[in-house]
Every structure is written in C-alpha cells, then in structure tokens.
Amino acid sequence: MVDIERLKKIIIRAAEEELLPRFTTCERGEKRDGSVITEADTAMQARLRDDFAEHWPDFSLLGEEMDEATQRDLLQGDGEGLWCVDPLDGTSNFAAGLPFFSVSVALLKKGQAVLGVVYDPVRRECFWAAPGQGAWCNHARLSAQRLTLSLSQTVALIDFKRLDASLARRLVEQPPYSSQRSFGSVALDWCWLAAGRGHLYLHGKQRIWDYAAGSLILAEAGGHAATLNGEAVYRADIAPRSAVAALDEKLFQAWCTWLAMAQGAGNSLP
Asked: Residue 140, Cβ neighbours under 10 Å: how many?
C-alpha cells in the first residue's frame, strides 16, 4: 500500500533539491535519438530510484533515462508494482531556461495505472489522482465544468512537431479553434487541461512515462481522451501514442469529429 502523502513529499523534496538548483546552470547534451538530456534528468531519476527503493523495496522502477530493452522487460514483468517515471518532463524547456517543466510518476500494477503524481516545482503545484479518488491540485479537487463554448471559441494545446505533416498543415491553414499554445511538457499539458487551463489537446507521439500519470489525472477530473485512431491512450507499452483530449465532453466530441474529417473518412474517433 502506498501512502500518497508520503509519495508526494518524496517527489516534491527530490524535485526541489535535484531540479531547481540545476535550473539555468547545467549544460545540455543529446541522446542518440537527438533529444535533449541534462545532468538534472539523470540525477533526478537516480534520486527517485533510491528514495522509492527505501520505502517500497518490492516495486521496480522504469525511467525514461533507461535503455529500451530494459524498459520493455519491466513493462512485461509481473512484480508487485512498477514506478513509471519521467524525471524531468520538459527537458528542452529546462535546458533553455524556460520555467515550464515537471516530474511525472505513475504506479503501474498488472499493466494499469493505479496512481499518478505530476509536480511542477516552479509553481509548487502537485497534481495527483487515483482511480475512484478524483484528481487534485495541491488541496483543490479538479472537476469538469460544463462549458458553453463552441469549438471555434476554444484555446487548444497542440504539439505540431510530432503530427503528420498534412494534419499539421490543415490545422495551421484552417484552425477550428480560436488560438493555439504549445508549452513543452506533456505531463503538465494533461494536468493543465484537467485544471481547465485550455480546452483542447492534441499530441502526435508521446511515451508511457509522458502520459501515464497525466492521463489518469485528466480522467479522474472527468475529462476525455483517445488516440487519433480512436483507441484508449494508455497502453502498457513503450511505443509512442497519439492523444486527443478535452475536459468537456461536448467539446471532445466536436474536436474528434473535426480531426476525423481532417484526416479523411478512413479514420474513426469516438
């Protein structure tokens, strides 16, 4: 059994001791795939690995900064539990001095996310959720409020970089929303959407450590999500997944309909 208050304290303390002191001071590097990595990524992952092992020795840890073979083996295992960790979500922001990044932690059991925590150390906002317990930001419960906005009045959180070029072009040339933002931390995107900060969401490729905690937080806030192919976003696999989401159900349906039409009649969304 995981004490959520203890878990949050461990994550918050680690982020404030490992991430914030390195912000704007550590140099960036590149992984083999060209993505950015810093000393803060590896230090934070090592810190959480050690802290979690001290309190929950029966659980394994899958971190973004591991090789893919190890990640796959961990997801296929049948242990007591598996921590799914992105030690620094928004590394490019972090390395560029942009104060929008987070640490994302999900606890997986039998392939399902049973707990999710996302912490933003800059704003000191701790988002968390567990099935049936709702979604929270610090001590405030998050819940969907019925909106009267049309699709054309919304603000969309969209990562164009990982979308199919034809869909990205269509969104730029004929946007169905009022305006668009891209902040650079997938985990925080999910949480901000759950908190009502923005109305629509679209991302072309994100990994399980990016969305495991955040998608649970949105779902427990009453939000809705699917892939561009109409499947559930969450899957116990490291293969990239697309994500379409909204907190409001009516806007979600309208957003899905527009995207299906934009991609062609061969695609179906809920």
From this structure: 10
- pLDDT for residue 198 is more than 60: yes
Phi-psi label, residue 136: left if phi above 0, alpha if psi -120 to 50, beta otherwise:
beta
Q: What HEC string does 13-58 produce? A: HHHHHHHHHHCCCCCEEECCCCCEEEHHHHHHHHHHHHHHHHHCCC
27 Cβ contact partners less than 8 Å away, ≥ 6 residues apart? 38, 39
Rounded Cα–Cα distance for residues 176 and 190 (Å): 21
For residue range 66-100, what is the model confidence (pLDDT) as tens digits? Answer: 889 999 999 988 678 999 999 999 999 999 999 99
- 78 Cβ contact list (under 8 Å, min separation 6): 110
Tell me how far CA of residue 217 lies from CA of 106, 124, 141, 168, in angstroms.
10, 17, 11, 27
Neighbours of 114 (CB within 10 A): 14
Q: Specify the CATH number of the domain 151-263.
A: 3.40.190.80
pTM above 0.85, yes or no: yes
Backbone angles phi, psi at 74, to 5 degrees: -65, -40
List, in sequence order, the alpha helices (H) in 129-207. 165-173, 186-194
Pair of tokens at residue 199:
């109305």
- Give the residue from 230, 221, 232, 223 showing the smallest Cα distance to 251: 223
The whole-number pLDDT of residue 270 equals 52
Q: How confident is the model at residue 267 (pLDDT cuts 50, 70, 90)?
A: very low
Topology of 4-142 in CATH?
A: Fructose-1,6-Bisphosphatase; Chain A, domain 1 (3.30.540)
Neighbouring CB atoms inside 10 A of 112's CB total: 13
* Per-domain residue ranges of the chain: 4-142, 151-263
